[in-house]
Amino acid sequence: MRFSVSSGSGQVLANGRLVIQTDESGVQRLCFESDRGTFITGGEIAPDGDLSEAAKELYREFFRAWGVMGITMTSIA
């Protein structure tokens, strides 16, 4: 599924997709890969599949990457 990441003012920061990355120890993380190659690693996915904490960490990483608060992700075709 593809997404558009926008600032609070509506400026599109990136288009891309969400991916699940698994490391050598089997820990899965929610990540965002932009069409221009930016890869942002989010938090760990809970063992029960809950994405709440993973998504919160991903949004923190969006802030670190772009320095913008109030980021919105919108599903795009």
Question: Can you walk through the features of this model?
Answer:
With 77 residues, the chain is an alpha+beta fold. The chain has one domain (2-76). Helices cover 19% and strands 44% of the residues. The protein is built from one helix and five strands. The protein has one helix at 52-66; strands spanning 2-6, 12-22, 28-34, 39-44, 72-76. The protein has a five-stranded antiparallel sheet with strand order 4-3-2-1-5, covered by helices on one side. A hairpin with a 5-residue loop joins strand 2 (12-22) and strand 3. The longest helix has 15 residues, at 52-66. The mean pLDDT is 94.
Characterize this entry briefly.
The protein contains one helix and five strands; from the N terminus they run ββββαβ. It has 77 residues and is an alpha+beta fold.
